[in-house]
Structures are given as structure tokens and as C-alpha cells.
What we know:
Elements: E1 4-8, H1 10-23, E2 31-34, E3 41-45, E4 59-62, E5 83-87, H2 98-124
Antiparallel strand pairs: 1-3, 1-4, 2-3, 2-5
Amino acid sequence: xxxxxxxxxxxxxxDLADLLGTLTGGDPGPIITQxxxxxxxxxxxxxxxxxxxxxxxxxxxxxxxxxxxxxxxVPEADGCWPLGWRxxxxxxxxxxxxxxxxRAAGLYxxxxxxxxxxxxxxxxxxxxxxx
Length: 131
């Protein structure tokens, strides 16, 4: 089976996987998580789905093409530590919708920036103490 993938490390990847699950009514497509290292989350998308887009900082495109090969760890059906399915595949031709992932990534990044700005403003106004 061929696919592209987008890797997002840490809690950001897991939060984005949960957001996609909510947006799709619990069927976002296959999403893999890894429990060690940088704790990456891999979103499996159709071949070519990661190309021609400028992904936000922290999003890594894993594609193949001329002179380029990427490897994505894929767990067994029931998982095998440190890998697991955040959302298991539901069919051989079922993937995460690349445009939805891209838009959700932008939405998630914007919400984080707004949260940071609000925290900075509250801190500057004396609402949040560093103690």
C-alpha cells in the first residue's frame, strides 16, 4: 500500500488527531502514534497529498518520489509498543483527507497563537503571576 504521511511531534500531533476525529464524526482516517522519543503522530494521506502545500512549522512531509524515499513505522492491527493506532484504518483505500488535515493544522496553529497572545496580555496586565 502506498501513501504519503505528515508527522507532527508531541502533544500537538495528538491534539490535532483528536480534532480531526471530532470534525469527521469519529472517522478521520488512519493515524499512528508513537509512545517514545519525540512522541510523533503520523497522519496517513493519499499519495501526493502532502505535496505543493506549505505546512506549518513542526509538520514534516513524508513522501516518496524521484531520488526520495520516506519510511513510516506502521504498527500491527492491535498495536505493538511503542506504536499504536490513534485511529485505525477502516479500509485499504481510506486515508486522512489531506486538505482537511492542512486546514485543521492552520486552525490549530492559529488557536495556539491566540492563546499565547492572550496569556502574554494577561501577564502584562498583572492578571497572571509567575509564582
